[in-house]
Amino acid sequence: MNTTVEALEDNKVKLSFEIDAKDVNARIKQAYKDFAKRYNFPGFRPGKAPRPVVDNMLGADTVKAALTEDLVNDTYPLALDEHDLVPLFKPEFDLSTEIVEEGKPFSFSTVIEVKPTYELTSYDPISVEIPAADATEEEIDAQIEELRNYYHDFKNANANTKVKPGEFVELTMKVTDKDGNELTQLSAENRLYELGVNLFPAAFDAELVGMKKGQEKSFDVDFTTDNSMLGQTLGEDKGVLHFDVTVDAIKQKVLPDVTDEWAHNNFGFENLEDMRKQVAQSIKDQKEVNKTRRIENECLAALAARVEGEMPEGMRELQEVNLLQSFYAQLSQNGYTLDQYLDTMGLSNDQFKNDMKQQADDVVRQDMALDAWARHKGIEATDADVTAEFEKANVDDPVAVQAEWKVSGRIPLIREGVIRTKALNDVVETATVTEVDAKEAKKTKDAKPKAAAKKTTTKKAPAKKSTKKEADKKAE
Predict the structure, then answer these.
(1) Closest among 187, 154, 155 to 171, alpha carbons compared
(2) Same domain, 314 and 441
(3) Which of 50, 176, 297, 392 sits between 20 and 30 A of 196, alpha carbons compared?
(4) DSSP label of 197
(5) Structure pTM?
């Protein structure tokens, strides 16, 4: 097989194929044998029916037409591997007027769209700033406040207090379906309930607002299209449910005083000062763990900023689909729906869509930046690099899997990933990373144009392989 590649406009290339007559003859001969074995031809043993009989029974061009399609499907992926091409979309082949003929070479062609190439405004080493690893007083206070909230208590509110959004109430309620049957799994006595956490529908919370201790109320709630956590678990019981509710008490959260005694009794620290020291060390350790990823993300963002121009709409749309698929898979694993997520995050559907579009654009821009850096630096992926990727994968037979990827034309995807990882490592290794005070880092990041921050320490960053998908982090 001979293949040629011709560059066209708009990031398209024309792939032309020619299979010589000798190979065509061999494939036609084998194809007739396969058809003779596959079908039952009266008067002939399996695989022994001659060509005229096969053509007469199946149609004159049936075997050759099937072989033509097989040749295209078999040779196209091999050409992708040979010329290291990653098509953005599935190609279309017009074979309506082309069919293999014995004694003649077979030719066909297709046009595919590939990723564009961009140049960076500069290939100088990246300079980035990250917050210093030491914990700030604000970070320590925030961590202790979290612990304080975890060890909260409750006290009954004044009898004249009315239920407000976001409050805790103690309820006794009886829940029945449309036929009057009690749903014992929902009915409860002295149940502590927090309004606004999407456990029950917003309509349920609205009925409670304004009630006082000891007050009773009956109302219906329609769960038919509800997306609260309860609405997702009702199953066949979904529909209009009736509630008979009594407010037993309105509860007010009481937070403990942060004292030496509290630090010692609840956490085993000697005193509050000892607690703050240990919390500070824990925060520092966590920052050190995340330091490499933070450096990679900052370097990626800085490198992507050097790519000028709009990203191709087709590539952005493909990346958006990938991000959405990954995001929905994470939601499903955690038992959440999109509506529940949006409600928890306080996002509208339009805000979510716009955020996904921006994330997709960021990922494409980062990939294009890494490709440009790799071309400029002469970074390549060797056959050994590709094989190593399959050996690192959690598969039983890496050699067999690699062979499958080769015949399906997917090896260029592996090369692309290896090159981008190498490029990111090179960017990080050559970057100047400056640790600055957390407040100064935020001030510098928010400044337009970027302001100079006070330097504390400067060092070369460690390299580490990464997926380069900061969008994954946002989705989490």
Answers:
(1) 187
(2) yes
(3) 176
(4) S
(5) 0.67
Where helices occur in 44-163 by DSSP H, the ranges are: 51-58, 62-83, 137-150
442 backbone φψ class: left, alpha, beta (φ>0; ψ -120 to 50):
alpha
* Residue-wise pLDDT tens digits, 437-463: 766 655 555 544 333 333 333 333 333
For the record, the structure tokens of 192 come out as: 């502590």
Which residue type sits at 286?
Answer: Q
Say what angle helices 21-38 and 51-58 make with each other, to 10 degrees: 70
**In residues, how long is the chain?**
476
What domain range includes position 20? 2-113
Distance of CA 137 to the CA centre of its chain: 34
How many CB atoms neighbour CB 50 within 10 A? 12
Residue 395 half-sphere exposure, CB side, CA atoms within 13 Å?
A: 14
Distance separating alpha carbons of residues 414 and 302, to the nearest angstrom = 25
Is-contact 315 132, C-beta < 8 A? no
**pLDDT tens sequence across 8-45:** 888 888 988 889 999 999 999 999 888 888 888 888 88
219 three-state secondary structure: strand
The position carrying tokens 């606004």 is: 196
Helix (H) or strand (E) holding 87: none
Q: Is residue 49 domain-resident?
A: yes
